[in-house]
């Protein structure tokens, strides 16, 4: 028995020695696993992120920048406060025809624009060219051309220009309705006249309104740096497609503070198509003055929520007046489209076609009423009755 125990002890000792040697010189032979090796494949998004990290947004920028132009305007401003008086025939009768005229002083400004057709149509902001006597467009290749105004829409701050050139690099349009908060965007323009510049950011918000910038507001908000001179330039996605026209910034000192606003390309395209086909923009109008429903107004009208728009006034002999709408009515829907506030009401009415019928759903003294009216044509901004 003792001899067997001795042989066993020696065998164990020899095995432990062999294991020690294998562990020391061949460690991989002793590794065991009960599972198969897992190979992690990077997702398509990871591959795209890796590609972007390597090349940035150069492909999007190289695609879009040839379509972005610099706009230089000149307006001749008279320095003579008595110029109008001097042109009066009675004044000239007493003081003579030969009067010294002070020269007009040219006032220059700059902005940006986007080529939207190969034959020279350019989208920009109305405020960029609204007071201009002369407009010059500088293309990305350094060439310059005089531009004429095809038409403007001050209520959305959109203008369409035309230059006499062919085979221009027109930008491609994206579907701005598919953009989401957080999407990466690039702003291209001519800030402070330093030359074409690209800045990067994200979409901070969609559908911004009640800003007091335009009559019709549905802005894309972005933190991409937008500065004076960027107005009218392009806001593009990472594929180089146009999603908006840079329009305004929130600023306390004239520089970018990370809050910029762009007109969605869907709105700019609608305006452009009407301008190029008829020379102006036609919108629906019913002739009411409206205001948002505040919590205090909701309480006084015994309303359960603050959705809708309070009709504060009805213009005499307007479509609303002829249909029987009254001050104090609360407009809740137009052709079954919900009205959430006065801005949404204005946008819905603007899309109605003049001379067509529309059904307005209102609350009057707590009761739901449907009123049918014939839509009118919205007057020009300076001719809207007060």
Automatic annotation (TrEMBL):
Its main location: periplasm. The chain crosses the membrane at residues 7-26. Gene3D superfamilies: 2.30.42.10, 2.40.10.120. InterPro entries: Chloro_Bact_Ser_Proteases, PDZ, PDZ_6, PDZ_sf, Pept_S1C_Do, Peptidase_S1_PA, Peptidase_S1C. GO terms for molecular function: hydrolase activity. It is found in: Periplasm. This is Do family serine endopeptidase. It comes from the Bacteria. The keyword Nucleotide-binding does not apply. Its EC number is 3.4.21.107. Keywords: Hydrolase, Membrane, Periplasm, Protease, Repeat, Serine protease, Signal, Transmembrane, Transmembrane helix. PROSITE patterns: PDZ. It holds the Pfam family PDZ_6. Residues 270-353 form the PDZ domain. It comes from Methylophilus flavus.
